[in-house]
Amino acid sequence: MQLKIYNSLTGEKENFQPILEGNIGLYVCGPTVYSNVHLGNVRTFLSFDFIYRTLQFLGYKVRYVRNITDAGHLTDDGNIENDRFVRQSRLEKLEPMEIVQKYTVDFHEVLKKFNLLPPTIEPTATGHIVEQIELTKKLIEKGFAYESNGSVYFDVLEYNARGLNYGELSRRNIEELFANTRDLDGQGEKKNPQDFALWKKASPQHIMRWISPWGEGFPGWHLECTVMSTKYLGDRFDIHGGGMDLKFPHHECEIAQAKACNQVAPVNYWMHANMLTMNGQRMSKSTGNYILPMQLVTGENDFFEKPFHPSVLRFCFLQAHYRSVLDISNEAMLASEKGFSRLMEAVKILEDLQPSEQSTLHVENWVDKAYSALLDDFNSPVLISCLFEAVKWIFSLREGKERITLEDLTLLKEKFHAFVFDVLGLQRIEKTANHKLDDTLQLLIELRNQARKAKNWALSDEIRDRLMEKGIELKDGKDGTTYTIS
Ligand code: AMP
Ligand code: ZN
């Protein structure tokens, strides 16, 4: 069984070969903890949670590093006075490190709510300032970086002059880049507008600052990921992930820093998760087109007509491949809720199915198909469609339309559970008053089916009509009877 991964660096689906047989080093860019993560951020983290779960399911031992960016992240206008942490701490009248703590806690709570597994190492940028200074020193020594007015910049032209290729990941041409860049950051300090900061001099008002050979300052954002990924995974590691929007400049700069320092490309497979849009527009804090993950669960928002269980969101997200744009809407969530409920119903039915002498189903083929979906660049929508093939079987088995041997039933149970709970990370909805109602209605449906089997039409009609009087409509479909409550 060969795992294939789409490598953003080559633009091709490649056969995956780990550096150390059976082991994988995985690095994913974490959040900048200056405010709450929005649902778009959660999609990216969830995409990599599914990838992490799948790699483990396939038998790999994964060292999963996801950082916390808690220092020196400038706003898009590049103005060094606009360090996001400093700005937020002024707004909330808190210390910058209180901001960091507050939103790190929030981040962890959100991911727990949506059943994301924690990484095996979660390093912080502020915990690796010494290493970042060391790397900056090394880049200066090797002639790839220069100091200017207390700040240090990476020399992109020098990098290219030595036969390296800045722009290889985002497939950008350096001349075009030079023509299209305005020098907003580091006014007049840089040799070229594309040079990026490794270290920034702190202005007197800047609170988050550290002592360095170039005076007091703070590290550039790209540096921390190079330092933390290579520190824990080695100079060359297997997989680096992040959202599509990080390809340039962030990941491009990571490649340049690591290649310049270690003479080796840092990453074998670059993976990029696509964006979440809401009502057709990319989800983002700055445009106001966003919803906080917890608001989806509590229902306190203007976009969705009702609250949704976190697993319904997982199910909704995983119905799209991680490389496709996903648009979230009220309709999409309602449809996901229906699909998820049906899947959970099948889980319940599966527990009580009885084996027969013979099988009318090809369970082994089904297992192969599901594995193939996972091996084909983590294709969650195809896996989900496989699961729904099995859901159909499960309903048919209950009705006696299909038969299954003990061996096949054991295999189906084991794999169905593993795909639903371990790989997709879905969780059962706990029993509530609503579920008691559901159980009762299922019981009435079952009694009506028995009456129909016995051709006792008078009783089966009475059950249907009396439920109708209470506003509960039964519908007989090809997969059994369902109900709607008005
Ligand atoms: P940030 O905290 O801004 O560094 O973002 C954390 C992660 O969320 C990064 O990997 C981003 O690429 C990702 N991200 C930001 N906006 C979206 C979005 N609308 N959809 C999916 N991922 C996003
Ligand atoms: Zn990063």
Automatic annotation (TrEMBL):
Its main location: cytoplasm. It comes from the Bacteria. A motif ('KMSKS' region) lies at residues 282-286. It is found in: Cytoplasm. Keywords: Aminoacyl-tRNA synthetase, ATP-binding, Cytoplasm, Ligase, Metal-binding, Nucleotide-binding, Protein biosynthesis, Zinc. It catalyses: tRNA(Cys) + L-cysteine + ATP = L-cysteinyl-tRNA(Cys) + AMP + diphosphate. ATP binds at residue 285. Binds 1 zinc ion per subunit. SUPFAM superfamilies: Anticodon-binding domain of a subclass of class I aminoacyl-tRNA synthetases, Nucleotidylyl transferase. Zn(2+) binds at residues 29, 225, 250, 254. It holds the Pfam family tRNA-synt_1e. InterPro entries: Cys-tRNA-ligase, Cys-tRNA-synt_Ia_DALR, Cys-tRNA/MSH_ligase, Rossmann-like_a/b/a_fold, tRNA-synt_1_cat_dom, tRNAsynth_Ia_anticodon-bd. One of its GO terms (biological process) is cysteinyl-tRNA aminoacylation. Belongs to the class-I aminoacyl-tRNA synthetase family. PANTHER family: CYSTEINE--TRNA LIGASE, CYTOPLASMIC, CYSTEINYL-TRNA SYNTHETASE. NCBIfam families: cysS. This is Cysteine--tRNA ligase. The lineage of its organism: Bacteria, Pseudomonadati, Bacteroidota, Flavobacteriia, Flavobacteriales. The gene is cysS.
